[in-house]
Amino acid sequence: MGMMDAWEAPEPSPFFFTRLNARMRAEREAAPAGWLARLKGAFASSTRKPLAAMALTVMLLLGGGTYLSVSDLIAPPPPQPNEASVVHDLQTLENNAQVLDTLESMTSGSDSNAF
């Protein structure tokens, strides 16, 4: 801390403020840059690769979404049966009962063969 107390900031050069004021005045008097100049600045060499990657990503997303929507138009989903939901539920239960009966007959038959 003693070294910090002993340190003194260097004095700026005598022409620093003169050059700073001249540059500030020149910037104020310069014509404001149009939208084209700002656009060119956005595509500077340091930002080309990230912008190109972002544009490619957007194009791929738009292309994929377009493909999915067009493929839905070309091949519509199959029509749903017009059965009542109660009938469908009863048919499902009957099929399950048939499967369970088949499994029980298979296991009872294999138990007698195992001994």
Task: Explain this structure.
The chain is 73% helix and 0% strand. With 115 residues, the chain is mainly α. The protein is elongated.
Please give the structural blueprint.
Elements: H1 2-6, H2 16-29, H3 35-42, H4 48-74, H5 85-114
Short description:
The chain is 73% helix and 0% strand.
- CA radius of gyration is 40 Å
Strand composition percent: under 5%
pLDDT < 50 runs, ≥5 residues: none
Helix content: over 70%
Helices and strands: which structural class? mainly alpha
Helix count equals: 5
Name the average pLDDT: 78
What characteristic shape results from the CA principal axes? elongated
Number of strands: 0
Q: Cα distance, first to last residue?
A: 94 Å
Main sheet properties? none
Write down the secondary-structure element order.
HHHHH
What are the main properties of this structure?
single chain; mainly alpha; 115 residues; 73% helix; elongated
